[in-house]
């Protein structure tokens, strides 16, 4: 099930970045957007925004231990971490932590972090986003392109 979550998150995050607009394919050209097969997969797909983000995380006893605030996609395009707000009041997070995606599971329609408690989550080091450069790097400057 954990592998399925990771696969679904990868697929949905990749598809969310692509346009669903259909383009006519002309011989000898590279159309923008996606193929019919990918477009169909998006329509029938799964949404991270609707299914994961801002959803509660519970432990194996059903006690709420946090809320999913973000999903981190590693440079190799794998879903690596879920950012969980350990302490939230009126939608404002006071302590985000990074949890390896393999530790989360869907059980009975709920996101479960087995063995977790609010205190254990709060005791983890606070997650801080890396400082972004003012201008993103062009795709050509990445090694895998």
From TrEMBL:
Gene3D superfamilies found in the cross-reference section: PRC-barrel domain
Alphabetical keyword list: Signal
Record-annotated PRC-barrel domain positions: 51-113
A Pfam family recorded for this sequence: PRC
Signal peptide extent: 1-24
Protein name: PRC-barrel domain-containing protein
Species per Swiss-Prot/TrEMBL record: Caballeronia humi
């Amino acid at each position: 099930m954990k592998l399925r979550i990771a696969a679904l998150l990868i697929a949905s995050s990749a598809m969310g970045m692509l346009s669903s607009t259909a383009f006519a394919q002309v011989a000898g050209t590279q159309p923008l957007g996606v193929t019919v097969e990918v477009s169909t997969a998006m329509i029938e797909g799964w949404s991270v925004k609707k299914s994961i983000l801002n959803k509660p995380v519970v432990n194996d006893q059903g006690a709420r231990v946090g809320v999913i605030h973000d999903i981190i996609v590693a440079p190799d395009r794998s879903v690596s971490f879920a950012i969980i707000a350990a302490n939230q009041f009126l939608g404002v997070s006071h302590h985000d932590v990074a949890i390896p995606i393999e530790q989360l599971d869907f059980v009975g329609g709920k996101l479960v972090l087995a063995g977790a408690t609010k205190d254990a989550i709060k005791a983890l080091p606070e997650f801080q986003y890396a400082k972004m450069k003012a201008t993103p790097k062009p795709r050509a400057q990445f090694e895998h392109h």
